[in-house]
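A.,

Following up on our hallway conversation. Structure tokens first:
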């Protein structure tokens, strides 16, 4: 799939020009340091990607799903079925983003799993389950290498941040756990990549593909909403204001506002961050 340049790519390219200028005109020690750190740690890029994904999930969960339900907008895990007049739940929104990534040249994998998943295909097993259970206790991410595949993985806690998350899982007929509460660690977002380092250009391509994945997932949602007998009005207003949904551009602009500063700041300093990482190695083919 060909990825069209986004505003994010243009912004980062401008940033790169500034960085190159600084490195070219800087004193010799700074130039030498930049050459030593030309490769970036995939752990750092996964952290940036996860920060953006977490911000988008929080936005979609609270401002679209939670507020949308109050406004009369419906959401369902089977939202793609023709006879279901509803939009995707947060888990399905993430899955749409992940599917977009799978169709691009970037090699970043995105998965959502748990020890109590509604869908058994998302059940953690073996050492991956042990990693997750340890993470549930301290809520700290886990970075590790999967020996069987040679890929690198990063687990981040998926926390119940809104009532719809808890209510949906507790009421679902196939849910193996029905006493979830707000702020519980319900699962984990897992990122995978085949190497432990990558170039700055590759990092930018990954983050741009992720942004385009958010856009594709939300666009698919609005496309489904347009088929309803009584579709919400799409424009500049949000569900908290009534039976409305923001347009793709309004939704993406809000994402940009929430993540741009942090991402650009990280990319400005990432070239000086250490790439030495000693991840735990586990033997698990489930990733």
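Then the amino acids I'd put at each of the 287 positions:
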């Amino acid at each position: 799939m060909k990825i069209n340049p986004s505003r994010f790519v243009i912004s980062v390219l401008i940033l790169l020009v500034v960085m190159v200028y600084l490195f070219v005109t800087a004193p010799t020690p700074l130039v030498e340091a930049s050459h030593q750190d030309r490769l970036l740690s995939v752990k750092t890029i996964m952290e940036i990607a996860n920060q953006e994904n977490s911000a988008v999930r929080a936005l979609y969960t609270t401002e679209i799903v939670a507020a949308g339900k109050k406004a009369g907008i419906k959401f369902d895990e089977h939202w793609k079925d023709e006879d279901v007049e509803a939009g995707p739940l947060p888990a399905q929104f993430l899955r749409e983003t992940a599917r977009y990534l799978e169709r691009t040249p970037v090699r970043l994998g995105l998965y959502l799993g748990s020890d109590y998943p509604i869908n058994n295909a998302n059940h953690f097993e073996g050492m991956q389950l042990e990693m997750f259970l340890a993470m549930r206790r301290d809520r700290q991410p886990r970075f590790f290498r999967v020996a069987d595949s040679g890929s690198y993985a990063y687990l981040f806690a998926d926390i119940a941040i809104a009532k719809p998350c808890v209510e949906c899982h507790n009421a679902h007929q196939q849910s193996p756990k029905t006493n979830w509460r707000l702020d519980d660690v319900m699962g984990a977002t897992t990122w995978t990549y085949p190497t432990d380092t990558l170039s700055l250009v590759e990092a930018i391509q990954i983050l741009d593909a992720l942004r385009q994945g958010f856009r594709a997932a939300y666009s698919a949602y609005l496309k489904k909403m347009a088929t309803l007998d009584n579709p919400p009005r799409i424009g500049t207003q949000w569900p908290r204001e009534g039976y409305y949904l923001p347009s793709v551009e309004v939704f993406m602009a809000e994402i940009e506002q929430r993540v741009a500063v942090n991402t650009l700041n990280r990319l400005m300093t990432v070239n000086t961050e250490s790439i030495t990482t000693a991840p735990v190695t586990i033997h698990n083919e489930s990733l």
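Strands lie at 40-41, 109-113, 142-146, 152-159, 185-193, 197-198, 233-235, 244-246, 280-282. Curious whether your intuition agrees with the design.

B.
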